[in-house]
């Protein structure tokens, strides 16, 4: 009886208020048994059984780092009954590099990251709650000081709403550092910055000053502080934190794999 009443109510609401129910496409089922990596002309491609992987635009999927290719093949192999692309961050980043859906050039990405620095999350500290401000100063300021020393800049935190002003040379120094990376690695930078809302924390991760777990904790500092007062829904907040850690870890690995000439050495039988 309850099911019938629910159906009637849904039908009446939909017809009266013209409510449209959004239907999301179902995840495709896994259609392959095993994954592999093949190499050709210094490029590495991913195979699903005997078929080579393609990008969303239908272009041949390839990377120039063997460790990255193995990691991507592992992502596909980790899919069970269905293929959940939303959790395959290395695959998504590599496809973005190949397809370049937004037609971004290297200078576009560098400018985006440099401009983001002026609105970096950890430069804006609380002006209302003293305990929160003290926590931010204790946890965020050491990373800001490291960033200033590492890149020869002078960024200062603020507890107001005004955008911090940069000293002469700041933009040039940060741009020079970011421009030393190729376009693929910069896509990883951009993904990490969008995850953390912080260029400073991203650079600290890439340079191994802090771990991805620590970076996520610092990015969520105010949220964690509020949860300490109001309580938390364990599974919901834990899932959110772990999702950020997965996204950030994938981004940092993507930067590493596209910034080094690392290859996997296979054992040779004698």
Concise summary:
The protein is mainly α and 270 residues long. It contains eleven helices and four strands.
Q: Explain this structure to me?
A:
- This protein is mostly helical and 270 residues long.
- It has helices at 2-17, 66-78, 89-99, 106-117, 130-151, 170-179, 183-196, 199-206, 212-219, 221-230, 234-257, and strands at residues 35-40, 43-48, 51-52, 62-63.
- Strands 1, 2, 3 and 4 form a 4-stranded antiparallel β-sheet that branches.
- The longest helix is centred in the last third of the chain and has 24 residues, at 234-257.
Q: What is the helix content?
A: 40-55%
Tell me, briefly, the overall form. globular
Q: How many helix segments?
A: 11
Instruction: Report the sheet-strand fraction.
Output: 5-15%
The string of secondary-structure elements, in order, is: HEEEEHHHHHHHHHH
Mean pLDDT: 86
What brief labels describe this structure?
270 residues; 4-stranded antiparallel β-sheet; 11 helices; globular; disordered C terminus
Please write out the topology.
Elements: H1 2-17, E1 35-40, E2 43-48, E3 51-52, E4 62-63, H2 66-78, H3 89-99, H4 106-117, H5 130-151, H6 170-179, H7 183-196, H8 199-206, H9 212-219, H10 221-230, H11 234-257
Antiparallel strand pairs: 1-2, 2-3, 2-4
Helix pairs in contact: 3-7, 4-6, 4-7, 5-8, 7-8, 7-11, 8-9, 9-11
């Amino acid at each position: 009886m309850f099911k019938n009443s629910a159906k009637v109510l849904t039908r009446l609401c939909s017809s009266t208020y013209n409510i449209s129910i959004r239907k999301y496409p179902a995840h495709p089922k896994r259609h392959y048994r095993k994954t592999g990596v093949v190499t050709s002309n210094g490029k590495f491609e991913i195979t699903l059984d005997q078929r080579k992987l393609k990008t969303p635009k239908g272009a041949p999927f390839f990377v120039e780092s063997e460790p990255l290719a193995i990691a991507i093949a592992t992502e596909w192999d980790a899919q069970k009954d269905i293929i959940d692309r939303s959790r395959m961050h290395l695959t998504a980043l590599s496809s973005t590099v190949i397809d370049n859906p937004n037609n971004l050039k290297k200078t576009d990405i560098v400018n985006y990251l440099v401009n983001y620095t002026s609105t970096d999350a950890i430069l804006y500290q609380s002006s209302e709650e003293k305990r929160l401000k003290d926590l931010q100063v204790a946890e965020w300021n050491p990373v800001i000081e490291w960033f200033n020393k590492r890149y020869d800049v002078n960024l200062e935190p603020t507890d107001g709403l005004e955008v911090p002003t940069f000293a002469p040379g700041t933009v040039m120094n940060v741009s020079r550092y970011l421009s030393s990376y190729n376009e693929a690695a910069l896509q990883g930078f951009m993904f990490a910055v969008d995850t953390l809302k912080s260029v400073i924390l991203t650079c600290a991760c890439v340079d191994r000053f802090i771990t991805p777990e620590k970076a996520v904790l610092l990015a969520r500092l105010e949220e964690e502080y509020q949860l300490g007062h109001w309580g938390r829904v364990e599974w919901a907040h834990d899932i959110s934190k772990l999702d950020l850690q997965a996204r950030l870890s994938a981004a940092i690995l993507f930067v590493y794999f596209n910034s080094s000439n690392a290859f996997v050495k296979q054992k040779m039988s004698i």
